[in-house]
Specification:
- The chain is of the alpha+beta class.
- About 20% of the residues lie in helices and about 40% in strands.
- The protein has helices at about 50-65, 120, 130-145; strands spanning about 10-20, 25-30, 40, 40-45, 65-80, 85-100, 110-115, 150-154.
- The longest helix has 13 residues, at about 50-65.
């Protein structure tokens, strides 16, 4: 039996910003990190996966949806620090624009709930840090026809 060895390092994650009209699909996290917070659905990239493969797998596992993956929307570099400013975790998260190909959103695997919310409703939810701000800026750039993604060091 193979063992997984965990070492300190950067964890690469992916997410999908799935928009239907004015609403965006969010999940309530069922596990750490960010247990109980609303966020973009997604998760960790597994060894050997491309970013696009990982986001399609994660959305199927977490929400039961098949998606078509689009351009990168947000690149988030999140470093969490502990005592004496030591790094406790470091996540590099690539959020893609995505469209629903098939399925109906349901909570599965790491999600305790799923829901479709407007940006104004998202501002009222308990979310991962700065989610509404990041989504608002990404949506603004998309509507303006900007080809650049939002890059955030958090």
């Amino acid at each position: 039996m193979d063992q997984v060895v965990r070492t300190a390092g950067i964890v690469v994650g992916v997410g999908a910003i799935i928009v239907e009209g004015e609403r965006i699909l969010l999940v309530r996290r069922g596990h750490a990190p960010s247990l109980g917070a609303w966020s973009i659905p997604g998760g960790r990239v597994e060894l050997g996966e491309t970013l696009q493969q990982a986001v399609r797998r994660e959305i199927m596992e977490e929400c039961g949806l098949e998606i078509t993956v689009g351009d990168v929307a947000i690149l988030l570099d999140r470093v969490n620090r502990g005592p004496a400013n030591s790094v406790s975790s470091h996540y590099l998260i690539v959020d893609f624009w995505a469209t629903l190909a098939s399925g109906e959103a349901r909570a599965a695997s790491d999600a305790s709930e799923v829901g479709w919310y407007t940006l104004d409703e998202i501002r009222l939810l308990s979310t991962t840090p700065h989610l509404a701000t990041y989504l608002a800026e990404a949506l603004r750039r998309r509507q303006a026809g900007s080809a650049s993604c939002l890059v955030v060091a958090d």
